[in-house]
Design goal:
Strand content: under 5%
Strand order of the largest sheet: 1-2
Distance between the termini: 9 Å
Helix content: over 70%
Structural class: mainly alpha
Low-confidence stretches: none
Number of strands: 2
């Protein structure tokens, strides 16, 4: 019974998810030269350089299909190899280890939190110039002349906008497709492969959007399909994440009523149909205003935006990720208990 449980897809989905998050929080990112997402970036650049000359939405569709197809092989090939060599209990653990390492490459919680904290540390040391430069790696706007308040705002914006992009959406599709694959009759190990592939395809779509999904003269056509596809796949996770920010605000003793009010009022004022939910909810919880000049404004300036707001936003982000993980763990545990 115990051996059968260890090989059950739901049990594997649960443990792989937990250990992959632990690996990311403790170890962090893979080296760039072997990071699957970096390799996807190379594939995107390869096809973009060859299709950009057509300057059409059709070229963007072809770019999207090619990148998803070839990028998926980065994840699929090693998992299938390990799947084929499972012939005893030891090799099952090797498969699970490979699976959790590959899943951990699909999100970046430690990097997300540490990037924001590094900007906070620069500002606390009074080094605005370095903080501006560090923020320039996180946002698309020009940062060389940003005020201290706008550096703080940009940091909180990119931190909170990435709650669904960097974690929640990835795990949402991992659990969703893993459970579906299991219940429609896929082999336990194959269901895990499908789950990780779904998570990685989400990461591919997110990377496509971040590289070509801009409304510039060069990218407005070829980036149309990637941007719209990103909006579609993040639609539910973004709203789920916004709701979790409100719950986190309640649990942390922050202004959760204002968090909910500002999210309802300002979420659609964000730069995309999805990004405003978590950003506005955090702005409301902290009673601050987040602003990208001449683009959008979220929240009300009840309190002055200060360096300490970054640390509070980090705490909200960390707690929101914890709640999202807990929610998905409970779902898997409930299914597992039914199966036992």
């Amino acid at each position: 019974m115990i051996i059968e449980l260890y090989a059950n897809a739901i049990y594997m989905l649960l443990t792989i998810m937990i250990f992959s998050l632990a690996f990311d929080l403790i170890v962090g990112e893979f080296p760039a030269r072997i990071h699957p997402v970096v390799l996807v970036g190379g594939i995107i650049s390869f096809f973009k350089d060859r299709l950009i000359k057509y300057n059409s939405k059709t070229a963007g569709l072809f770019l999207t299909i090619c990148v998803i197809a070839f990028g998926s092989l980065i994840m699929l090939v090693p998992l299938l190899i390990f799947r084929m060599i499972i012939f005893n209990e030891i090799m099952e653990y090797v498969f699970k280890l490979a699976a959790l390492l590959l899943l951990s490459s699909c999100f970046s919680v430690k990097l997300l939190l540490s990037s924001a904290r590094e900007v906070e540390d620069d500002l606390k040391r009074g080094n605005l110039k370095v903080a501006r430069e560090r923020v320039s790696y996180l946002v698309s706007r020009k940062t060389s002349e940003l005020s201290k308040e706008h550096v703080i705002s940009a940091t909180i914006e990119t931190l909170t906008e990435n709650i669904p992009d960097s974690y929640v959406s990835t795990m949402f599709y991992y659990v969703l497709f893993g459970v579906i694959a299991y219940f429609i009759g896929f082999n336990d190990f194959d269901a895990v492969i499908i789950a990780i592939l779904a998570a990685f395809i989400h990461r591919i779509i997110d990377t496509l959007d971040s590289m070509v999904g801009y409304e510039t003269d060069e990218l407005i056509n070829i980036g149309y399909v990637p941007a719209k596809l990103d909006d579609i796949v993040n639609y539910i996770p973004a709203r789920f994440s916004g709701a979790l920010v409100v719950v986190s605000s309640l649990a942390m003793g922050l202004n959760w009523r204002n968090s909910y009010f500002i999210m309802r009022r300002d979420a659609r004022a964000g730069p995309s149909p999805n990004s405003g939910y978590t950003m506005s909810a955090v702005a409301g919880a902290l009673n601050i205003q987040l602003e990208k000049e001449n683009v959008y404004t979220l929240g009300d300036p009840v309190h002055k935006i200060e360096t300490e707001c970054i640390e509070k936003a980090i705490d909200i982000t960390r707690f929101t990720i914890f709640l999202a993980t807990l929610f998905l763990v409970v779902i898997l545990l409930d299914i597992l208990l039914i199966l036992i």
